[in-house]
Amino acid sequence: MTRLMKSILPTRRTCFNLIDFDLRHVTNVARNCTCSSKPIINLVYREDPQEVVGFLLVDSAPCSDFAVNFQTTTMKFRLLFLVSVLLLSATADLQEVQTSLGRLRGQYVSVKGKETGVHAFLGIPFAKPPLGPSLRLAAPQPPEGWQGLRDATKQPNICIQDMDMVNNLIEKLSGIITDLPDASEDCLYLNIYTPANRAPDAKLPVMVWIHGGGFAVGSASMFDGSALAAYQDVVVVIIQYRLGLLGFFSTGDELVPGNFGLLDQIQALKWVKEHIHNFGGNKDLVTIFGESAGGVSVSLLLLSPLSHGLFHRAIAESGTAAMDAIFMNYPVPVMQAAANASGCSLESTEKIVKCMRNLDIDTILALGKDPNLRFVVNTDGHFLTKPVPELLQKHELLTVPFMTGINNHEGGFVLAEYFAPPNWTEGMDRELVGNMLLIFFPLPEDAPIRDLIVKKYVGSGEDRIRNRDGFTELLGDFFFTIPAIKVANAHRDAGAAVYLYEYHYAPKFLRIKRPSFVKSDHGDEIFLVQGYCFTTTHVKLADACPEEEEEFSRIMMSYWGNFARTGSPNGHGLVDWPKYGAEEKYLSLDLEKQVSGQSLKEDQFIFVTQTLEEIRKFQENVEHSEL
């Protein structure tokens, strides 16, 4: 019996050799099952994988499950069996892994529609906690090991961020059930989801997810990699990185160069390269993927010399490095404004930095709520050696297989809520559309360009509904679509295999919460790519998905999983996805059908990249001649 209780295997049905039992006490075994000569005992779980049903099955791998009645001659046998079941119910869902840093205990997670789920290891440190004056506003340092068994069954602290903004976002996704941990400066952790039925020597593709949130909000605990891991037989890693001031404060020089959140991502990828084999992953087959600021991060990692050898494919969903809005060419004014708002001395940069490294968290949180203080990416000379446009133009990038794309209504609702006035869904005035363009064209001399754009997207402006629709289209084009096509062109021209998509479907639970004019909004694809119709953990849908939505989710997961395995999204039973080449072919992804197209948003792309550029150059020449 001792040997029985020590023989726990990390599967949904935990199996044991019947060496310690007297088989004369087993009766009524089903006779229509061909089994191996060595009988096996199985403990069977109910719907909850942590609860063991108190009866046994005699079975072997090719057999069906049949109930077995036990007749025992002594109370001792029954007592031993009861003790073993109780012990197993508490431990059968646990899984341990040894790494060079120490031993980890994870847990079994079930996935709807799959006989076998995954093992989840949560809150694994990939860097030293960035605490104290020496590690705050500094590059991450490798993690230290630990003694004994580390519990990896709980979500890690999320990084410091504006929780009001987070809760507002979650409220808009009210069909999602999620439970967020506390926020802390100690937040450099990652979560791993690996198939429970993996072979001991498995070398599965690895998919590293980088969350979005404008480099201001987001966490690993807002996502779940269990369904994608189970359905695609891949190891999913979800990482965290420092946000806002703590992640992107910069003095504009070597003293505090900034981009620490991006350096956190590099450190996480280094950890994956060194340790992922312990979880069944192949360190030489790593795909990075992310959405929004996560997609921007993916695109930036492709431009950084620090990334070489850390990943082998990349997917940027609704966010690329060509998005000017997330960059700051001159971080010094923001540094000074933040220092002034914090009561720090402006006497020297050194005094500012010393003060900022000793600020209390409440002050940092208050700075994060100031809409005039944007802590974003800059050209630091280390992570980014040159401005992004120059790197793209000169094709100084990693030419790994690259997938990118957008949703067909990126500015349809969530983003529009941040820029539009109250009651905007009922219609908008023309002048409000022009005001939004100050984000992209802020100078007084840009007024003719702003007027031309408004005319292009909303016409005369007499129709308030058309103004609204033009406004949302403009948001999506300028923030996401045009930059995505620019980046796809750069990678294609550099010689990389590129796959471009336009995603069209909004999950049912989101459609019923939005105005009817909203199509596929920013972030909608995440729910199907990550298979939230099938998750059972802290991140899951409140209601069951329609059957056709589940099927489309399996299609989306297959495209993404195939890309991670082979560098191409194509596979058996899927509509062919053409490479993005000189003909500019792409794939439209919708629930009812997937169909190839050509020259995504060609008219708008030419207008923004050629017509507006010619006007801007003409204005510059006029100004130069007047001097």
Structure description:
With 627 residues, the chain is an alpha/beta fold. The chain folds into 2 domains: 2-92, no CATH class; 102-328 and 374-426 and 496-603, Alpha/Beta hydrolase fold, catalytic domain (Rossmann fold), CATH 3.40.50. Helix content is 34%, strand content 17%. The protein has helices at residues 2-5, 75-91, 132-135, 163-172, 226-232, 244-248, 260-275, 293-301, 332-342, 349-356, 361-368, 388-393, 414-419, 430-436, 447-458, 464-494, 508-511, 526-529, 547-566, 602-626; strands spanning 14-17, 26-27, 40-45, 52-59, 69-70, 94-99, 102-109, 118-125, 149-151, 176-177, 189-195, 204-210, 235-239, 281-291, 313-317, 402-407, 498-503, 540-541, 585-589, 594-598. Helix 16 (464-494) crosses helix 20 (602-626). The chain is globular, with a radius of gyration of 27 Å.
Number of helices: 20
CATH topology of the largest domain: Rossmann fold
- Summed over residues and divided by their number, the pLDDT gives a mean of 87
CATH homologous superfamily placement of the largest domain: Alpha/Beta hydrolase fold, catalytic domain
- Counted beta strands: 20
Determine Rg (CA atoms, Å): 27 Å
Q: Work out the count of structural domains.
A: 2
- This entry's quaternary arrangement is single chain
Proportion of residues in β-strands: 15-25%
Distance between the terminal alpha carbons, to the nearest Å?
A: 93 Å
